[in-house]
Design brief:
Layout: H1 8-31, H2 38-51, E1 55-56, E2 68-72, E3 75-77, E4 92-101, E5 104-113, H3 119-136, H4 145-157, E6 162-163, E7 169-171, E8 178-182, E9 199-202, E10 205-207, E11 213-215, E12 222-224, E13 230-232, E14 235-238, E15 245-246
Antiparallel strand pairs: 1-4, 2-4, 3-12, 4-5, 6-10, 7-8, 7-9, 9-14, 10-13, 11-12, 14-15
Bound molecules: 2-amino-4-trifluoromethylsulfanyl-butyric acid (MF3) and cobalt (II) ion.
Length: about 250
């Protein structure tokens, strides 16, 4: 498994790609309200990505038909935007977006409430977000890859939530998915040693019920096997000799 170490120039390109993505993402987040369709979010996302000189990296990726993944309620990830999926008060929606700029990929995801949502849904969203921050406490040169996985799992286990195992985080750079794979569930081994210059997309996918997921007939949409709610939180992160740099989180969203 060859994990690439990015040079200073490459890191600057990653930063730029991530900065643009965060801007697009913040705009999409502001569109979320009851009555909007997931297709409208996708259309706007693709338009904005192209307007800033980027290329939507999800579009046509292994045949994925859209630029933004829109996953509602029990949909975990890779929900396909549709004209007839209209957000309703009380729903939760995960947006996952990415782009290529100057040949470098960026990738991020957040889960949002639509209007006012149940306390349980909010708790799931908050715990999923916090699990990312627990994970990146270990995203430092000298730590091992699975220290991140175990930190996420330790935190989530305290809630009794399910941790999705069939999908994982990943290295990112000139490709959307590079080595290494980054599981969010407990690992018995340590994994590779982290080094400054690695760029990783760390993305816990957490459910309010079982960890088991299924694929819908569209072959993309991943749903919880028991119909429970799911949340997703992802950033592209740079490993440094000190604190990790969260490239898709400059403060906009
Ligand atoms: N954030 C997702 C991932 O890392 C996005 C890829 S979805 C696809 O796998 F649509 F591009 F396939
Ligand atoms: Co990703």
């Amino acid at each position: 498994m060859a994990v690439s170490i990015k040079s200073k120039t490459e890191i600057e390109k990653m930063r730029e790609s991530c900065r643009l993505l965060e801007k697009v993402f913040a705009h999409l987040a502001s569109m979320i309200e009851p009555g909007i369709s997931t297709l409208e979010i996708d259309r706007e996302g693709e338009k904005e990505i192209r307007a800033c000189g980027g290329i939507p990296n999800f579009k046509n990726y292994e045949g994925y038909p859209a630029s933004i993944c829109t996953s509602v309620n029990d949909e975990v990830v890779h929900g396909i935007p549709k004209k007839n999926v209209i957000l309703q008060e009380g729903d939760i929606i995960s947006l996952d977006a990415g782009l290529i700029y100057n040949n470098y990929h960026s990738d991020m995801a957040r889960t949002f409430g639509v209007g006012s949502i149940s306390a349980e849904a909010q708790r799931l969203i908050d715990a999923t977000k916090q699990s990312f921050f627990e994970g990146i406490k270990k995203a430092r040169a000298g730590c091992h890859l699975y220290d991140i996985s175990n930190a996420i799992a330790d935190y989530i286990d305290g809630f009794g939530y399910g941790i999705v195992q069939d999908l994982v985080g990943h290295g990112i750079g000139t490709k959307l998915h590079e080595d290494p794979q980054i599981p969010n569930f407990r690992q018995a081994r340590r994994g590779i040693r982290l080094r400054a210059g690695m760029t990783l997309a760390i993305e816990p996918m957490i459910t309010a019920g079982t960890w088991e997921v299924e694929w819908l007939d569209d072959d993309w949409t991943v749903v919880t096997a028991d119909g429970s709610l799911a949340a997703h939180y992802e950033n592209t992160v740079l490993i440094t000799d000190g604190e990790p740099e969260i490239l898709t989180m400059s403060g906009l969203i």
